[in-house]
Amino acid sequence: MHETLEIVQMRSRKIIDGNLKVYLALSSLFLVLVLGKFSQILAVVIFSVLCIYADWKAYLRIIRIPAFFLLGAMAVILFTIDGKVLASFWIFRITEESTGIAFSVLLRSTASLSILSFLIMTTSIPEFITALSKLKIPKFVVEMLMLVYRAIQILFEEISRLDTAASSRLGFLGFRNMIRTASLLAFSAFMKSLKRSEIMEEALESRCYRGCYPLLDSRTEGAGISALILSALFLAGWFG
Amino acid sequence: MILTENLWFRYGEKDILKGVDFKAEKGEVTVLMGKNGAGKTTLLKHFNGLLRPYEGYVSVDGERLRYDRKSLLKVRKKVFYVFQNPDDQILSPTVWQDVAFGPKNLGIDGEELEKVVEVALKAVGLNGYERRLCSTLSGGEKRRLTIASALAMNPEYVIMDEPSANVDGYGFEMIVELIKMLREDGKGVVISTHDLDLAKAVGDRFYFMDSGRIVWEGERLSWDMARRLGIRTFAFGKIVLSSSLDGEFDFVGVVNGSSSGFEIENERVMESKGLDVVEKAILRAIEGNEVLLICDDGCMRDVAQIIERYPVELEVRVGKDGEVHEN
């Protein structure tokens, strides 16, 4: 079976669990954005290790796509900023300023990417929403987030079914077919989502919905490690 | 008791229900059968006020249904509707949240809520699944989750729209057990189904619908009748119950007696006595054979009742002329 992100979140090994992992990720993200390069290097190392421990195969799959965009963006920065030329070939020039900015952006992006990878590999959306709700986010926002997420789950299942049906009837054979099938799929998905919204309203009424959405509480683990990580990031940034 | 009287409902210009009179008692399983498009789901959706008739009425425990918000909430606490497609009913991303959804909205919270969810999940065998995302459950597990959601609300009536759709043999057995458990708890269960196996396994009272009308109701169901009314059945072979030897059959058996009194030419006589021979006859018929069971008029009714539970065609001939009196 194709391993979805939800399955990764469910199966990954977690040293830090519960709402704490969300707060750790958000705090670390804030620290690497405001502190210097040492805290960023440390964040890359720590959160990469946590991700590899959680599920190294999934980690490689997750960072593959953003890494591709990141490297592309680095190349653009490297070759487009003027300054003291370090090296040049054909029309491209690498300058002292461009290497500095590229390195700084790369470091900050990689640190953020590591932290966010840790978050999405270990935290399901309901856990994330539960953690946010503890931060006194308005109730209706939490309800909307839950319902929208459930709707997305169902829509993805529908799209997957439609995709299988189209593939089995050679719907993606050739460019023209692919375009036509994609437009049909988009239309069907839209119609199904409309129908689904009517059914969801019926289900909400049928189940006595009065604006209460139960939230999943989970046991918090790894408070010591979290404190250690945050202290290390802070000290590295402060003294670095 | 859920009661409908002269219920009429239309989508647009088309009448879907045409004067339906229906009754479902507490502590009983009432089965609603009929062809696709007969109006079964539409009727079920009236029981907790999801749909409103333009004529006639629904009453629950003697109280006529009203359609203001407060009354609807009251009736929905009593009458739980389990949707045909579990994905239509599951509203929360995780198993625990979905079971807790109803009770939480009824004002149950804290430890009591934990307890209610735990008991409901245990009853359907989903304990340990609390943190699982609903999108990662199999079809059978989703079906069980919807029933757990019903149990957590502790309603007095549970309405199930095709509960055995898309479940395998194990799932089917689980659903049968759950429905029986609900009945033993004194709850009234109404199910709509095309599945004759399910209907026979749990049903106490049966209704057949056709084109928006109830066309038959009763307490006994036979394979033959279901087939006549357009229900999907698999009748593998045939058993003829008769007091005399008449016609040609693959096998012949004699209940309460021996074959010596009959001049049977072929050698396919099932030499057994009493109910053993009935069991053998059923097995032979399931294999696709035509079997004659000879028994006297006194025991014919009892034997017919046993055979009716199995997927075989039954013909009962009473009297010397061999006239068919009951199918």
In which order are the strands of the major sheet of chain A placed?
A: 1-2
3D shape of chain B: globular
Second CATH tier, the architecture of the largest domain in chain B: 3-Layer(aba) Sandwich
CATH class of the largest domain in chain B: Alpha Beta
Gyration radius of chain A, rounded: 23 Å
Topology at a glance:
The complex is a heterodimer of chains A (240) and B (327).
Chain A: H1 5-11, H2 19-34, H3 37-80, E1 85-89, E2 92-95, H4 96-122, H5 125-133, H6 139-168, H7 175-206, H8 223-239
Antiparallel strand pairs in A: 1-2
Helix pairs in contact in A: 2-3, 2-4, 2-5, 2-8, 3-4, 3-8, 5-6, 6-7
Chain B: E1 2-11, E2 14-24, E3 29-34, H1 40-44, E4 55-60, E5 63-64, H2 69-78, E6 79-82, H3 86-89, H4 95-105, H5 110-123, H6 139-153, E7 157-161, H7 169-184, E8 188-193, H8 196-202, E9 205-210, E10 213-218, H9 223-228, E11 238-242, E12 251-254, E13 269-270, H10 275-286, E14 290-294, H11 297-307, E15 313-317, E16 324-326
Parallel strand pairs in B: 3-8, 3-9, 6-7, 7-8, 11-14, 11-15, 12-13, 12-14
Antiparallel strand pairs in B: 1-2, 1-4, 4-5, 9-10, 15-16
